[in-house]
Amino acid sequence: MKMQVNPNKNGKVQHAVPCCLFRGGTSKGLYFLAEDLPQNADERDQVLLRLMGSPDPRQIDGLGGAHPLTSKVAIVSKSERDDADVDYLFVQVVVDKAQVSTAQNCGNILAGVGPFAIEKGLVPSSVSHTDVRIHMLNTGANATARVETPGGMVNYQGNAQIDGVPGSAAPIFLDFLNIAGSSCKKMFPTGNAQDVILDVPVTCIDNGMPVVLINAQSFGLTGAELPSELEANEALKANVEAIRLEAGKLMNLGDVSNKTVPKMSLISPALQGGLINTRTFIPHRVHDAIGVLGSVSVATACVLSGTVANELIQKSFDDSAMAIEVEHPTGQFTVEMEVSGSHDISQFYVKRAALLRTARLLMRGEAMLSCE
Ligand code: NQM
Q1: CA distance between the termini of the chain
Q2: What's the pLDDT band for 371 if we cut at 50, 70, 90?
Q3: To test ligand 1's pocket by mutation, which of 23, 106, 355 has the most ligand atoms within 8 angstroms of CB?
Q4: In this structure, which of 138, 198, 301, 362 has its CB flanked by the most CB atoms within 10 Å?
Q5: Distance of CA 344 from the midpoint of ligand 1 (Å)
Q6: Where along the chain do its domains lie?
Q7: What pLDDT, on a 0 to 100 scale, did the predictor assign at position 320?
Q8: Pairing of strands 172-177, 349-357
Q9: Is 163 helix (H, G, I), strand (E, B) or coil?
Q10: Residue 176: which of 355, 357, 301, 364 has the closest Cα?
């Protein structure tokens, strides 16, 4: 870890850690080169907690944004692999607990990894666009990010709009490979398209992100409730968490009481012309939109016959390419997919999942780490 020492009047020192702040999709986080952080995972986690200002509900003494979606970190390095240009480790820094987790991936923060890697010279840029092949260390899966690089420079301005982010920006296309069973070993870790947990029908799926889908009606909800209403409903939160703890065991995730997966998506009929509507606990706060890989898992569940999502939308899918519109509290998320065997869980295969995001470099400089 390369750090500069900067003593102050009180004899305390502040260390300067090079980093960038990016909005990645509908999330925001600090992006580091792996070489600028301690190599030892425990020391690294302590540094990240202090830089973000956790544990503290306001993260007032750090750079975190006091919400799980703005308390995120990407650690990036050049890859040694033949199939990747860079390695990306995602770290969720818990806001109000001294906890960090690498047990989940993040597709929104992934959107900033390509631009960051080009800015930092890890990947040579081409003259119009640059494809950055990213190995996602949290799950072992790969993605390719297509970044606009006119004249060899990352372009952030453009007309691409994603719901949940004001204005527009340059498009970043993300193409995912081998994401089935990313954390749970199997796309349907229980072996079933549908299970019943604590008397509630659920679908447990992991196509990039472990997610448990539940019809909002099972809890007497319409599914159109605001995230703040859901977060204020203590009985609902207790039920959702009880199911999550059971689902974690069935999904090969073990005891998930201190893990941020699986996510819990309450599904309901679409309201804005999409295919399905969602409200997602991530897992204790409710997402203002929906996660990238979370939405890939939801879209995938829609396509397979027999899931709670497929029963809700009552649609049969032929084997083909399709665009699935997943609605969320601030708009819609389009997942492009190509699948086969959608009528039978034992035949089901997702050939391709891709989507559009945007990202923007917000700050580059040094994060100051206060040391006692
Ligand atoms: O599912 C939030 C986000 C995410 C994760 C979460 C994500 C994904 O919106 O790939 O992007 O579910 O914790 O950043």
Answers
A1: 18
A2: confident
A3: 106
A4: 301
A5: 28
A6: 4-179+358-370, 195-347
A7: 81
A8: antiparallel
A9: coil
A10: 355
Residue with tokens 């609902």: 236
Measuring CA to CA, which residue among 225, 188, 228 is closest to residue 308? 188
136 C-alpha to center of ligand 1: Å? Answer: 14
Ligand 1, atom 13, lies closest to the CA of 282
Q: What is the pLDDT averaged over residues 200-209?
A: 98
Q: Do the Cβ atoms of 187 and 341 come closer than 8 Å?
A: no
Residue 357 has pLDDT above 90, yes or no: yes
Distance 196 CA to ligand 1 centre (A): 25
Q: Is the pTM of this model over 0.90?
A: yes
Report angle CA 330, 282, 290 to the nearest 5 degrees. Answer: 30
pLDDT category at 319 given cuts 50, 70, 90 is confident
When pLDDT is cut at 50, 70 and 90, the band that residue 10 belongs to is low
The pLDDT of 36-64, averaged and rounded, is 98
Is-same-fold flag (4-179+358-370; 195-347)?
A: yes
The CATH number that domain 4-179+358-370 falls under is 3.10.310.10
Measured distance CA(27)–CA(75) in Å, rounded: 15
- Averaged pLDDT, 97-107: 95
Distance CA 146, CA 115 (A): 9
Average the pLDDT over 334-357 and give the result.
Answer: 95
Pocket test for ligand 1, best of 172, 176, 287 (most atoms within 8 A of CB): 287
**Bridge partners for 276 per DSSP:** 269, 326
Q: Which fold has domain 195-347?
A: Diaminopimelate Epimerase; Chain A, domain 1 (3.10.310)
Handedness of CA 137, 143, 148, 149 (dihedral sign): positive
